[in-house]
Every structure is written in C-alpha cells, then in structure tokens.
Amino acid sequence: MSLDDPVIAVDKPETATEAVLEPKTQPAPAAAGWPPRFCCFVTGTDTEIGKTLVSSAMLHALVQAGVRACGMKPVAAGTELRDGEWRNDDCDQLAAAGNVHLPQSITTPFLLKEPAAPHIAAALEGITISPVPILAAYVEINAASDAVVVEGVGGFRVPLNDDFDTADLAEQLALPVVLVVGLRLGCISHALLTVEAIEARGLTLAGWVANETQADMAFADENIAALSQRIDAPLLGRVPRLAEPTAQEAATHIDFTQLPNWPAENKL
Ligand SMILES: Nc1ncnc2c1ncn2[C@@H]1O[C@H](COP(=O)(O)OP(=O)(O)OP(=O)(O)O)[C@@H](O)[C@H]1O
Ligand SMILES: [Mg+2]
C-alpha cells in the first residue's frame, strides 16, 4: 500500500462514506459554519504508561459523539507477523477504537520490526525516519476524518533521526498536546519536564490524564495533587488500574469535553 492508495473504509456514519472517498478541501470552519475539527497529539511521561489506552479511549468517545475518528501512530517499533501481515499492537488498538479505516501504511508510515528506540530500529532496516511521509499521511487522514488522534512514541523527546524527535513532530503537526502521566514513583518530575518541553516549543498542553498503571501506588492522591498545582492545564481524568483495560472502560474515567474543539454529541 502507498499513500496514494484510495482504500478508505468508514464504519459510521454510513452516509459519510461517499464524502470520505472523495477527499475534499475543507472550507474554513467558521466561514462555512462547520464545527471546528478535533485533533491532538498524545504524549506520555514514558513508554508503557497508557498512551495507547488513553488515545483509544479518546477515539472511542469521538465515535460515540458521532464523528469520523481516526487514530495515527506515525512511528511504531515492534511488529509480529499475523495472517501474513506485519502488525503492531498499538496500531491495531487505535484502528479498533476509531471508525475510519485507512491502510496501515497511512496511519503508520514508519512501521519498524524491532521493538527498540525508533532511530535504532530504523537503522537496523536501513531506513531513515523523516517528517515528510508523516505529514503527507496526516493530511490524507485529515481529509478522510473529522477528528484525528496522533499517538507519539515513548516519551516526548524520543529521537526519530539524528536531528528530529517526537517533540519536533508534534511541533510540525502543530497539534495541541494531551499528556498521559503514568502514576509511579518519579512521575512528578517526568511530567513537569515534559510540560516544560511542550511549552518551550510553543505548543498548547490541552490537558493531562493520570493513569494508574500499577495498582495501589503509594501516595497516588498526593502525586496527583502536586501535579494539579503545577500543571496549567485541566486534569481530564484519573484512570484506575483496570482489570480489563479497554478503550470503552478507560473512557468512562476521562472527561474529554474539556478539550478544545471536542465535538458536541451528534453535531457533525
Ligand atoms: N489503567 C490501566 N489499567 C490496567 N492496565 C493498563 C492501564 N493503563 C495501561 N495499561 C496496560 O499497560 C500496558 C501499556 O499501556 P499502553 O500500551 O497504553 O502504553 P503506551 O504508553 O502506549 O506504551 P508505548 O510507549 O509502548 O506506546 C498495556 O498492556 C495496557 O493495557
Ligand atoms: Mg502505545
């Protein structure tokens, strides 16, 4: 599959399918009376702290609100061969939570086999990750969707090549950022450093989510209070350690309506 492939499938609303198949130039929302689009970049305090879970919850909530929602994981490292295709769990979870189904080559322009730091995994395959295919794919996803959730890789400053990292990617995409804080010892400093890095790039921190990746973290309330005092963005929710960490279940613990341009239910 290439970026030019016109293979686009939308679960619902079914009536939107035709429009999706013919990507259109979007009119200026205010001028045309269109609702503003919801798009964001989901980053985290570390790897394995719940970015995919929160991104999937966001996609689930967007679908519930009646919009065409698509997840994007521009760079994914770690694949397994399933039914003759190289698959990545994050990509599959995002695709399952959204309702606009594009080829994986568009939602993940850089799918790397080795579960390692992306620039290392890319080097193993003789690939250099570059922003251009990612930005082109993002444009294509935008044309097919009303809302896009982009999941970063690992933490906020993960190198993608020698002079380009995930923070640069968020900057080039010019997206508001949602920060997932994995509640564990050390998360306060990780979170505040990430907030500093987001703000240093002139990006908007639209909100943050406290995610209990481990059960019974000591002083979880106090950690959240310390972060709330210091982060100048809304706490969207606190996701407890879930027995079944599904998008649907996680979404019940997060109030996404506090995010800018969050769609009013069934308005699109
Ligand atoms: N609140 C939670 N309750 C139970 N399990 C959780 C919770 N949050 C995350 N997990 C589990 O922890 C693991 C890591 O979560 P997730 O994949 O969302 O992290 P990530 O930040 O996206 O990781 P990566 O950096 O690899 O993309 C997953 O198995 C997920 O199901
Ligand atoms: Mg993930």
Describe this structure in words.
Its cofactor is Mg(2+). This protein has 268 residues and is an alpha/beta fold. It has one domain: P-loop containing nucleotide triphosphate hydrolases (Rossmann fold, 3-Layer(aba) Sandwich). 35% of the residues lie in helices and 21% in strands. The chain contains eleven helices and 14 strands. It has a six-stranded parallel sheet with strand order 3-9-2-12-13-14, with helices on both faces. It has a two-stranded antiparallel sheet with strand order 1-7. A hairpin with a 2-residue loop joins β10 (159-161) and β11. The longest helix has 14 residues, at 51-64. It is globular, with a radius of gyration of 18 Å. The two termini are 30 Å apart. Residues 1-8 and 12-31 have low confidence and may be disordered. It binds adenosine-5'-triphosphate and magnesium ion. Magnesium ion is lined by residues 51-52, 90, 151.
List the topology elements.
Elements: E1 9-10, H1 17-21, H2 29-32, E2 38-44, H3 51-64, E3 69-72, E4 75-77, E5 80-82, E6 85-87, H4 89-97, E7 100-101, H5 104-107, E8 110-112, H6 118-124, H7 131-144, E9 147-151, E10 159-161, E11 164-165, H8 166-173, E12 177-182, H9 187-200, E13 205-211, H10 220-230, E14 235-239, H11 247-251
Helix pairs in contact: 3-4, 9-10
Function: Catalyzes a mechanistically unusual reaction, the ATP-dependent insertion of CO2 between the N7 and N8 nitrogen atoms of 7,8-diaminopelargonic acid (DAPA, also called 7,8-diammoniononanoate) to form a ureido ring.
GO molecular function: dethiobiotin synthase activity
Subunit structure: Homodimer.
